[in-house]
Amino acid sequence: xxxxxxxxxxxxxxxxxxxxxxxxxxxxxxxxxxxxxxxxxxxxxxxxxxxxxxxxxxxxxxxxxxxxxxxxxxxxxxxxxxxxxxxxxxxxx
Length: 93
Description:
The chain is an all-alpha fold. The chain has five helices and no strands. The protein has a domain at 21-80. The model has no long low-confidence stretch (mean pLDDT 74).
């Protein structure tokens, strides 16, 4: 398999016009080149942003779980709110 890949790369190096797989990379107009670079940057950063966001979300969940274990009564007050058991005098919630 390695020999086949090396032979293919060598043959394509002899024919530079056939090796140019993407016409946008070097031969596109300025507008399309900017869009190509912009989408490349966006798609390169997207996985990093998603992974970092997921890690922060898990960290938040771990902190909430730890706080719940330390003081379960206080966590109930946080969930329901301090005045959840009281109703207004007019009867409207």
